[in-house]
Each structure stands twice: as structure tokens, then as C-alpha cells.
DNA sequence: TCGAACTTTCAAAAGTTAGTGAAAATTATT
DNA sequence: AATAATTTTCACTAACTTTTGAAAGTTCGA
């Protein structure tokens, strides 16, 4: 397989993965492009390679920066801004996990906490079914929260390899 | 908070979570409704509670069954079909993990394996950057695969609690 | 075998999300 | 301060996804 073909395939695969994850396709494709680039790319180079508009490029690069997996770099003597992706994929994983936790799990925990305060006759089977379900889900969510916090905190690889050996 | 209000809030929250996960909102809402129901519900009851059409109900219930988190149940003496959700949230988690792995991780692993065969001058910095990136991602993906397989296989709660204590 | 009860399908409509490109804003250079 | 290069914004459009509801299909009991 030629490099050009391989690159295109990777960008496309990473894009679909992103799309399935609720990350927009273009954002994931820009990320893919930067991951395999030998050096920082400018907005124009990204536009060119992916055939997307300037506005789209700008928006999605900014979002990648928000997620903490892409950085602006200044090349001396150049007026343009250049962008580079975090290459350590463990760190990328951690950053994505942290971001998704903040957006998804944290709000859910809040809601579940509220919902535990439901009032009503404990003998009513509707109330009982509701309370039981919410309690179960709350425990699960809390557990996940604790686990993810540990993972996010422990960026060092010894941690991952410890878990890894355990699960192997 | 009254039960009706709490129910509505939970269904809405579960729906948004689903939407962010690329699961369609209605599918997640039906799932939420079944999770807190004290008994199996018919298609008509689901339509009624969520104000959705028959077609929509049918499609999404079928998809929930495909994911293995909802079951058809037959109530003696009744002609209609009734539906019930898996109430053990750990099992729900496992089923969803397994399904997503099949749809997302497995195809990605295949692609990455292919891409490692890229041909070209090892001294070309473009080739080198590509190969390095793909190798790193492949290792990460493989690792995740092994880990998830272990999680999926071990449905017993002792397993989760062992990991839990470790991470605590 | 017929018909009522129920489920499934599917084409069209509605709704949602992503992408464009030109204009506005910002920043750097002279 | 004027100009040029670059980035950011945003109203609009294009593409995609979901939902509807009526029609077709199926199942079951009499």
C-alpha cells in the first residue's frame, strides 16, 4: 500500500470512529491528519488536504484545542499559526475521557442525586420500581466516576501497565 | 419532587445521554421508561407515555432487543407483546460495551493492521511519522481490546469489585 | 377459512446538524 | 496610521437523520 492511500484510509477510519462517538467527523479527520503529520500544519494545509472550508477548519481546530489534544505552535519567521497534535496516544485517551466525563457523566450524576429525593408512598409499586432503578444506576455511575477519576489522575504508564497485567 | 416529574426528568436525561453517545434519543428514552417501569409494557403503553408513533416505537424497541438490553415477554392470556428491560445495570453496561466494541473497535483494529503494511522509504520523514503514529495507536487499540474482552467475559460482580478496590 | 388484533414496513415530511464562504475583526508590518 | 495578512464569525444552505402514519403483512382464535 502506498503512503497516500494509507493516509486517506486512516483519516477516513478515524473520522467514522469520531462520528460514532458524537465527535464531529471533520474534527476527528483534522485530528487524524495532525496525528500522522511529520510537522506542524497551517490552517491552509489542513484545508487543502481535507478539502474543507476555512470556517470549518477554524472551528474544528479550535474545538480540538479546547479538548486539549491539539496545540497552536508558532514557527519563527512565519506569520501564520501552525497546529500540532499530542502524539502520545495514552494522553489523548486521557484527555478525551476527561472531557467526556465532564460533559456526560458529571451532569448525569447530578440529576440522579436529585431524583433520589422523589417523594411518595414506599408501598406504591411505581415508586418502588423507580427508586430501585435510580439507586442502581446511581451506584453504577458513582463507581464509574471514581474509576475514571483514578484513570485521569494517573497519567503515568506504570499505572496502566499494572492494570493491564491484571486483566491479561 | 413528585413521581411523575421525576420520571419525566429521568427519561429526558437518559435520552440526552444516549444522543451524545450516538444512540438515538427515542431508543434511549424507551429504554429509560422500561428501566423504571414496575412491570412489562406494551407497545401501546410506550407510545402513549412518550407520545411517539407506532412505527417509531416498533423500530426502536427492536433495536433495543438487538442490543440485548430489552426482552419481549409474553403475558398469558394477552395477545399483545410486552417488553421489559434488563434491570441489572452492570449487565446493561456489559451489553452496551460489547455492542460498541463490535461496531467500533473491531473494525478499527482491522484497518490499523492493514495500515501497518504501508510501503516506502523508512528514511522519508512522512513515512516515518505515519508508521510511528499507526504503531502507537495499534498498541493502544489492542490493549483496549484485551481489556474490554476481559470485562465482557467477566460478568460476575466479584470481578468488578476486585478492580474497584484496586482503583479506590 | 375468515376476520380481528396486532406488528412491521416504507415513502414522504419534519427536524437536526454540519459546512460554506463572504464579511467583520484582529493582528502584524511598513 | 495605513495596509496587508490572517483569523473568526455567522447567516445561509446542503446533507443527513428521525419520525410519522397509512398500508401491507402476520398471527391466532372461532
How would you briefly describe this protein structure?
The structure is a homodimer of 168-residue chains. Chain A is mainly α and 168 residues long. In chain A, 70% of the residues lie in helices and 7% in strands.
How far is it from the N-terminal to the C-terminal residue of chain A, by CA?
33 Å
Largest interface: A-B, 59 and 59 residues
| Tally of contiguous helical segments of chain A | 7
CATH superfamily of the largest domain in chain A: Winged helix-like DNA-binding domain superfamily/Winged helix DNA-binding domain
Kindly name the structural category of chain A.
Answer: mainly alpha
Give the strand order, joined by hyphens, for the main sheet of chain A. Answer: 1-3-2
Query: Low-confidence segments of chain A, ≥5 residues, pLDDT <50?
Result: none
Kindly report the CATH topology of the largest domain in chain A. Answer: Arc Repressor Mutant, subunit A
CATH architecture of the largest domain in chain A: Orthogonal Bundle
Task: Summarize the amount of helix of chain A as a percent range.
Answer: 55-70%
Task: Categorize the overall geometry of chain A.
Answer: elongated
Number of strands of chain A: 3
Q: How much strand of chain A?
A: 5-15%
Number of self-contained structural domains of chain A: 2
Keywords (chains A, B): DNA-binding, Transcription, Transcription regulation
InterPro entries (chains A, B): HTH-GbsR_regulator, HTH_MarR-typ, MJ1563, WH-like_DNA-bd_sf, WH_DNA-bd_sf
Family (chains A, B): Belongs to the GbsR family.
Pfam family, one (chains A, B): MarR_2
Amino acid at each position: 500500500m502506498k503512503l497516500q492511500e494509507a493516509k486517506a484510509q486512516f483519516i477516513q477510519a478515524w473520522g467514522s470512529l469520531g462520528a460514532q462517538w458524537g465527535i464531529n467527523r471533520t474534527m476527528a479527520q483534522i485530528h487524524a491528519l495532525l496525528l500522522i503529520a511529520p510537522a506542524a500544519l497551517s490552517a491552509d494545509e489542513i484545508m487543502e488536504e481535507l478539502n474543507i472550508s476555512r470556517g470549518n477548519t477554524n472551528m474544528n481546530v479550535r474545538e480540538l484545542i479546547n479538548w486539549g489534544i491539539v496545540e497552536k505552535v508558532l514557527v519563527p519567521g512565519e506569520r501564520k499559526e501552525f497546529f500540532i497534535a499530542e502524539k502520545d496516544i495514552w494522553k489523548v485517551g486521557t484527555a478525551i475521557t476527561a472531557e467526556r466525563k465532564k460533559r456526560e457523566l458529571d451532569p448525569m450524576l447530578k440529576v440522579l442525586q436529585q431524583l433520589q429525593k422523589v417523594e411518595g408512598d414506599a408501598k406504591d409499586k411505581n415508586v418502588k420500581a423507580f427508586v430501585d432503578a435510580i439507586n442502581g444506576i446511581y451506584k453504577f455511575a458513582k463507581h464509574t466516576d471514581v474509576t475514571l477519576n483514578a484513570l485521569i489522575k494517573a497519567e503515568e504508564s506504570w499505572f496502566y501497565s499494572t492494570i493491564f497485567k491484571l486483566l491479561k
